[in-house]
Amino acid sequence: MRNLYQRLKQQREASPALPAAGAAAAARAVAQPSADLAGEWQPVAQQVWRAVYRSPLLGSDALYRSAAHGGLLLGPEIDPHGLCFFDSETTGLSGGAGTTVFLLACARLHGAELETTLLFLSDFSGEASFLHLVRDQLMSAQTLVSYNGRAFDSNILRNRFLLNRIDPPHRPHIDLLHPARRLFGSLLERCSLAVVERDVLGVTRDIDIDGALIPDVWLRFLRSGRTGELQSVFAHVRQDVVSLVALLAKIEELVASPDRGGIDPLQRARLLVESPYRRAGSVRLRRSGLQSLSVLARDPSDPRSAIAARYYCALLKRCGNWDVAVPIWRDHFERRRSVWAAIELAKFYEHRCRDYAAAAETVAHAAGWDHASAMQPELTRRLERLDGKQRRASGSSAVRGHSDSA
Amino acid sequence: MADINRIISDLQNDSSFMSCVTRWERIGPRPGRYCELPGDLDPRLQRALAGRGISRLYSHQGQAYRNARSGHDSVVVTPTASGKTLCYNLPVLQAIIERPETRALYLFPTKALSQDQQSELGEVVLASEFGIKVATYDGDTPESLRASARETGQIVISNPDMLHAGILPNHPKWIKFLKQLRFVVIDELHSYRGVFGSQVTNVIRRLKRICRFYNTDPVFICCSATIGNPLQLAQTVLEREVQLIDDNGAPAGERHVVLYNPPLVDRVQGIRRGVVNEAQKLAIRLLRQKVKTIVFSRSRVRTELIADYVNKSLANMYTDNARIRVEPYRGGYLPSERRAVEKGLRDGSIHGVVSTNALELGIDIGGLDAAILGGFPGSISSSWQQLGRAGRRQSVSLAILIASAAPLDQYMVANPDYFFGRAPESAFVDADNIYVLMDHLKCAVFELPFGADEGFPQAVTEHLALLEEEGTIRLSGHSYYWADRGYPAEGVSLRSATSDNVVIIDTSGGAHSVIGEMDRPSAKEMLFDNAIYLHRGEQYVVLQLDLHNRRALVERSNVNYFTDALVKRDIKVLHEDHRQQLCGCEAAVGDILVRTQVAKFKKIRFRSHENVGYGNISLPEEEMHTRAVAMIFAEGSAAGNALAQLPPTMIAPAMTRIGALIRNVAPFFLLCDARDIGIAERLRDPHFGAAALYIYDAYPGGSGLAEAFVTVMPEVLTAARELIAGCPCRQGCPSCVGPRDSAEEIDGDPKQALGALLEAWLAHAQPLPKTQTAARS
Questions:
Q1: Chain B residues with CB inside 8 Å of A26's CB?
Q2: Minimum-distance CB partner of A91 among B451, B453, B485
Q3: Residue B571 pairs with which residues in a beta bridge?
Q4: Residues A156 and A48 occupy one common structural domain
Q5: Is B172 in Cβ contact with A162 (below 8 Å)?
Q6: Residue A26 C-alpha, separation from nearest chain B C-alpha, in angstroms
Q7: Looking at CA atoms only, how far is residue B79 from chain A in angstroms?
Q8: What is the CATH T-level fold of the domain B4-27+252-421, as seen in this structure?
Q9: How far, in Å, CA of B589 to CA of B585, rounded?
Q10: What are the helix (H) ranges across B357-428?
Q11: Per-residue pLDDT averaged across A244-258, rounded?
Q12: For residue range B526-546, what is the model confidence (pLDDT) as tens digits?
């Protein structure tokens, strides 16, 4: 910074009649050769390039099937041909108004083929045209599919559209990150697309660039004009969208058939009954999820039984289905001596049946267990409260009795 | 019942108290001036105000309302208890009631603490009666509430730091807010001075730029405490025409302001009875008479000490404290603790409070009967803010300033005319500090591509070209774009000192507790290995200064000496902007390079000040470009002649002591901290060819202090002379020219020698302006 200061000072003193830097630089920018992209790349506007690739699509059956019969994310209301699998590359990962999108990849199904379109911005000044083309691509789709696109890509794109005073595109958006996290989260070290791709889809990339380095590649390209390093970025983003297609198919396949893929049945069931997906998921899948939960909840041999039971009973409680919930709690209370089940039962007796004696008895019983020591304060508090209620209840009935006799 | 009048007459009849009073000033009551509630004010708002007992406005509130309604920017000068918040809340609430889409941004200088208080107090609560949504947006706002603040907050309360690093870089998220932004309220404008002021000015530039993008042009309403140049400051920060509203219409009761100098206990060394003791004794005296009292102290430790003493003394006299409750109040408390004290003061359940300057700012604690200032707060405007905490609209109040041994305190009590007559200090801002400007220019480019011919607001084409060379921005077409993966606001702190500080860690007895922090350059001079460091009365030895990790490990020690680094300071003049004749010397302003090296330290025995040894320091050199003013003692000038009359061996120590005097006095006139300026003297300056005394800005690139110093130089020198003349010590003390030091070569009496030098110098300078003596009314 000191050098900067000195230079600025010197410059100011040395040449008071310095030509406007803006004008000089503008002249330089015009003289600068535009990026030289060969092969599939076509210039489509000033500083904007497009490339289109077609590739055979394997395993697309699952997509068409779940769209037809109603899957977790797809359903009859979604035409698979209207899906746009997209990913973008940006100048930074921190977000904010100064982060720019310079590359967009969109993949569309064409029967058994996949058509991937890449749009590339080769310098900032072409951004408005680039964004118009991006908008056309996204708006021509019926539904967008991404990985973490809701939180990241969409926000940065929205910023870019606003800054260029272009209407941001609006389309329904399926983000595969959340179902992927639910299904694979406990199995994988991280839930990044790269890891999911490798460990779930079994895709191996021969040579690949670390996604975190991509911003630097583009910024270096801006300064040097050399396109060599960019090729790995293009390959990277193309593979990303291809993997998105495969991942969507895989998720639908796994949720449709509970016994496959080594998926944790509990997590699968939770995914199926969780609300964000209920809209697109079919009633059949939700029922299947509930069914697995109810089996798990009653299966004493399964280590996940307690978690499944708590989760399942919470759902039952929410819709007032006590007839199903109470036997499960009782089972966990009596046979497995679960403190949580004791508390749930006590709540049931206290608030639903107003049977304070039964509630107190249940709590007192649990308080006697050795393994309940950690919960002791809560149990004690509960017991005291119930005692109070019992006393008040008997007191008021005594008063009532008195007045009756008068 | 508190009888303030009785206390006042008691004190006036107490001869031992009065013998220490250097001035007792009675300021007569002032009637209020009012105007009707504005005719266009929504009837519901009128009713809501009436419900709070407000049926008319003070004249300045009415003026502020009309100004804002007609779209003019204004700065309202608001002494304590003048109904400040209504000045901005009224036009904002009215506008939101008329058009609910309207948005307003409130900026407060302090962080979260006083902000969430601001949202609970004042007329902002009126907002809730109209369903107006007030949201706080700062570093402590949880992520879950941020989105709703952006989307639905009609009044958003924030601070400049958050605007800088949170809102502006993410302005597309704030589109709904920014598109309807009609008002920006900048409270406590006077705190935006010096480097902080230049930072904030640049943040406002960025805000205005983003507003232009969203086609909004909000009205700015600023509030400032009484300072010398509120209008100038507002126009510097906003860079546009601003209207000044300084005609305070709020009434005030009769006030007694007393300057009190504790009795001398050692005339030779100039030692007086301590401020802490005097303050607590006076506080107890007032509290026993049920006088609601606030005591201001200058440090957090003293705050605790005084509160503790007071409570203990009260407990001894009455078993139940006579139900008198005194609480300390300072930074570092939990917000809820502070809220409880504030509430207790307002509702009367707390009778006394001992506070740092934390309560000087516009926190509503209601009116108190008496204020005791334990030491001069460093500036006239701060003093009046603190003194103003005592005073109600109707009744009599008492405020006592207790002087410490510090030079400025002694100057003020010795020159009461000066204290009462002087206009409050002016605040200076240099918005174009090159470092600050470059930082914010980067942030601006990040926020919105910067047109090659766009101004900021002045031409910045060269700055942009340099940033492009550096590679963080790129010219494409006719605009500059942010071409870096970083997030520039992250690397720019508006409160610059914090990022580079050295943390001081006490490791005594295996502990590891942070006892303070210090900026890096000062740490090199005070926290070098083996240095003896004094901190709040405790003595520590520095085990290791770890500059790389920004920490200094210290341990309690008990030796009979302290250490003093021998600082080698080399100054190179880079560019001289201009030079003028002033006060019998020449004052040159320009850019300098300061190289500082500490290579050795002396060990000096306590009390006797004998030199008992040396040690080596090996630390890298510190380099800084900054702005400076050089006072040149040119041959033939009054200053040069005065200096030439001294014996040659005395010239060096005399220069050092003049430097010390200026360092003591100048911050007061510059409204800055003593740390903000550096002083260096040279007997034979190669650049100027004479002895020269440099006063330079301690902030890289300068923050306007060098330029400001030239304008206050006559006053600084006059004050220095009067400080020496008025000091009751015999041969110099820490309150004036510094104590006698056997290691120095001033023969005989340094005080007399320095006094004579200044007399000789200033007697032959062109007439200096007389100190203002008009009494405050």
A1: 452, 475, 477-478
A2: B485
A3: B594
A4: yes
A5: yes
A6: 6
A7: 40
A8: Rossmann fold (3.40.50)
A9: 13
A10: 380-387, 407-414, 416-421
A11: 84
A12: 889 999 887 655 678 999 999
